[in-house]
Amino acid sequence: MAAPGAGDPVDTESGKAPFAQRIDPSREKLTPAQVQFMRQVQLAQWQKMLPQRRTRNIVTGLGIGALVLAIYGYTFYSVSQERFLDELEDEAKAARARALERASGS
């Protein structure tokens, strides 16, 4: 019979599937083969998650870029609205000039 956790899909004693144990390499002495295997597994997991991470990074970058462009566009729009205030000031100056003419003409 094989040792428990040696690839058996179900542990016959408890009826549960074996779980991987978390190992702290700084506390436990590992053989160079175990360290190399851990590095291989970490590299495989990193490569497996790379496309998902890349997709998320692209979506995040596009979202931030869209936000920046929206703020930039709104700034241009609000600056273009300042002409409206300039026109109001011109009208106010003209009204003051007319009021001065009426006051001096009377």
Return Rg in Å: 37 Å
> What proportion of the residues form beta strands (DSSP E)?
under 5%
Head-to-tail CA distance between termini? 120 Å
Q: How many distinct beta strands?
A: 0
Helix segment count?
2
Assembly status:
single chain
**Helix/strand order:** HH
Largest beta-sheet details: none
Structural category is mainly alpha
Query: What is the helical fraction, as a range of percent?
Result: 55-70%
Poorly predicted residue ranges = 1-7
Rounded mean pLDDT is 82
Overall geometry comes to rod-shaped
Question: Helices and strands in order, then pairings?
Answer:
Blueprint: H1 32-80, H2 82-105
Structure explained in plain terms:
Belongs to the COA3 family. Residues 45-91 form the Cytochrome c oxidase assembly factor 3 mitochondrial coiled-coil domain. Pfam families: Coa3_cc (PF09813). Residues 1-25 are annotated as: Disordered. The protein is mainly α and 106 residues long. Mean pLDDT is 82; it is low at 1-7. The protein starts with 31 loop residues before the first helix and ends with a helix. It has helices at residues 32-80, 82-105.
Concise description?
The protein is mostly helical and 106 residues long.
From the structure above, extract its key features.
mainly alpha, rod-shaped, 106 residues
